[in-house]
Amino acid sequence: MHRYRIWAAVAFALLALALPFIFNSPYYQHMLILILIWAALGTAWNLLGGYCGQVSFGHAAFFGLGAYSAGLLYLHLGASPWWGLALGPVVATLVSLPIGLICFRLRGPYFALAMLALGEIFRLVFLNWISFTNGPRGILMVATRPGKIPFYYLALAILGLALWWSYLLIKSKFGYYFVSIREDQDAAEALGIPTTRYKLYALLPSAFLTGLVGAFYMNYVAFIEPNVVFSLGNVSVMIILVVILGGVATLWGPTVGAAIYIALGELFRAQLGAANVLAFGVLVCLVILFLPNGVVGEVDLFKRLLGGKRRGDVGGSLGSP
Amino acid sequence: MTSVAVLEVRKIVKRFGGLVAVDNLSFAVREGEIFGLIGPNGSGKTTVFNLINRFFPLTSGTIHFGDRRIDVLSPHQICALGIARAFQVVKPLRRMTVLENVMTGAFLRTRNVRRARQKALEVLDFCKLMHRKDFPAGKLTIADRKRLEIARALATEPRLLLLDETAAGLNPRETEEAIDIIRQIRELGVTIIVVEHVMKVITGICDRVMAINFGREITTGPPAAVVNHPEVIKAYLGEADA
User: Fold this and answer.
1) Cβ–Cβ under 8 Å, residues B102 and B148
2) Which residue of A has its CA nearest to B110?
3) Contact between residue B37 and residue B189 where contact means Cβ atoms under 8 Å apart
4) What ipTM does the predicted assembly reach?
5) A-side interface with B, Cβ within 8 Å?
6) Which one in A58, A286, B75, B238 has a CA-CA gap of 20 to 30 Å to A153?
7) Would you say residue B131 lies in a domain?
């Protein structure tokens, strides 16, 4: 079983490395990069929202801060926006720290609401602080740009980092503590777990990775404006839907969810025009109804339907890959 | 048995608004004993547990564990000092397996996953839950959930264990097994406080029992004496009709 896993991982990695040559057109390569971006965002959110149960409706705040870290460096200092890859995650992490310190002492929906507000606050501030951010005109980067392939590999590296980091955390004491906090905070406290601190341990890497993806996004798209990168509907909520589609609290769920989201999103847009959002919404409802644990979370169900073996092999959320 | 007090509760009071749930209660639990806490429904037994591990802050009074004052600490610090608790309303970590539940407790004393697993397996064996180790905790029967509560608490390697109605809702055979497990835990050198309605548990294993009603002490002493105390009978059955 273990050996089989390793070979599967190697094959998967080789496939990921070869993909941009298999789909050798800028359009498909763009789709692949978008999948990687959303997969990394979903993986970052999942660590906090999926495993630790602290649902954030405002990860756009960290994403936008990462993007603007890169953009503002370019705008004001004329620095290469690649420096944003270093600055963005740090800024996002620093902003997340006080939010976590304040909200994680409380239970209930306070953190979710605070994050919702945080995303909107940053959006409005960046829209209106025109002298610093260019406001709604956004930041356009004029630079010679390499082709898609370097971006693809960079995005793949970021996703790899997110998955690897998540894997290490989930398989360690941290993972057990995160899940126990999600399952029952009183029980966790009574087992000697400093719940406030461990929620923070989930938030900080989540914000860090989200900021990193934001900085990458600025470099890749070369144009940002507050309504795009701090968007509640198109960033904060979409991250959550991607994770739900693929499987909450599963390592590969967000990646699978991102692939479905981007592929079907394109298909719906091409076929259905303005109705594509409706179609996507219906899809999400169907997944929630029939695959409540997401596509990856219901792997056992598929196995049962296909092969009829390993019936009732349900483990805890840490046991599944 | 030594007479060193492991836990010393002095004049604790807990008010919820106008209701006095615990009223000037004092008691000391000695090293290695099984101390019973009985009283009718709503008499404040579970509240006493919630005060000991500080799920609720005290209104007044002090609680010492060894020579350390603990009523100012938070629940996770109290557990780290060595007071573990099995809840009356069981709190399984539902979407984790039984083994993962117990490992979560074991991680208090180690950060090494393999060692935590080893410890958890030992505890599961001790609590006779080994056959359920890969079950999702949410799907256990009530008897197994109660046992899981004990196992998880034991995995934190406590010096003092608070057992809240561990035998409630169990059939006679399961009750016997629960009593066995509690006895064996004591043999490990763990001091135990039990809150219980099931008299078989109280009279069968407790060294001393305190009866309370309306948050106040009625009497403390050997189980047989306390259970037959007229005030205690009156508290459970009400005043004789005049």
Assistant:
1) yes
2) A173
3) no
4) 0.92
5) 171-173, 176-177, 179-180, 183-184, 186-195, 314-319
6) A58
7) yes
